User: Fold this.
Amino acid sequence: MKRPARLALTASAIAALLVGGAAVVGTAPDNDGVLAPFASTVSIGQPVSAREFDAVVHGVTLAKTVSAEYSLTSSVVTSPGYWVIVDLTMTAHAPAATLSFAQLRIGDYSYSVSDFAPAPSMIGYSFGSEVPVRGPLVFELPASAFERADSADATLVLPARQSPVLDTVPTVAVDLARLVASAADSVALDSASTPDAGGAE
Amino acid sequence: MLRAPKLTIAIVAVLAVIATITLLGGFADVPQEKLPRVTLGEPYAGNEATVTVERAYLSPTRPSAPGNDDPLPAGEGKQFLIVETRIENTTTSPSYVYGDIVRVLIDDVLDPATEPNATLDLRTGSQLGLLQPALTLDVDFLWEIDETAATAGDDVIVGILDRVPVANDPVFGDSAFTRPSPVARILTTIEETP
Assistant:
């Protein structure tokens, strides 16, 4: 091979390597992306499985006021926005499984689960491995959350821990905007989460 | 040429440095700027929350949920100093930001380093949990103090604190903050028990 041709070939190979390297760097996930959890998204009524538990959301209702009976007292609380009550069943695969890190997300906004429901509640530890438990998860959202267009594409996210790195995270699509019209004045929260004979199926 | 003694050169050098620092204002008094004042009922918008201080008052009992006729009393010989506020979390995620947002100063009784004994959601009379974004709640801060330490009509300074986000923190990344520091003050008097 003549020298000019050899030079051209070498230059082409180097250029190809540089372009290839740039493409790899440009398309590689960032640090957060490398460690991101895997969302497993379903609709209301569909079961979803994760490493630590299975879950199924039976329904979601809104209310201006919630009430609860505790062991020594009772409480009635009206929100300046809305209470979002998620009726779900969770079947734990480990005794320490918990829904205490559950969040409702609307666009960039996230809302954490309230501890208002009386104990034993869905945010406490499960009743034991493979024992289905049904009860409410309660969230409090401002009225402005329901005025955003993306409230129709809200998601209920059920991570098993605060930082679910490289873990499966059950996610349920919820149209919150549609629920405002049917919001209840008041909802009484169940006194306890109860075993659900139907399980998460 | 005569050589200057090393000691002389050193003294001249040090004097030159001191003179330079003086000329640049390095030894001037540090101006002490007073914190901006806000008034009762005036919202203060911080980096993560907007807080409105409504009033400060003394009470022999803890604030409780509406309809609760048996509120918790202060300890024997004690009373509560209660600061009523309204707080909105202006971030996009739940936060405990309110915990550091209000402090009080009463001479010889409470200093701004003293954390409140409790931070209550007025709807329930219980300790407030995470404050959800864009949700405005009435929140009471309370400090238990000696019964004789303060009376209605005494002066009190209510300080509003804020913290600043830190980008690229080596440990916490972009979710780090500076320590909360005072950014505004309210000069008022303690009110009677409502």
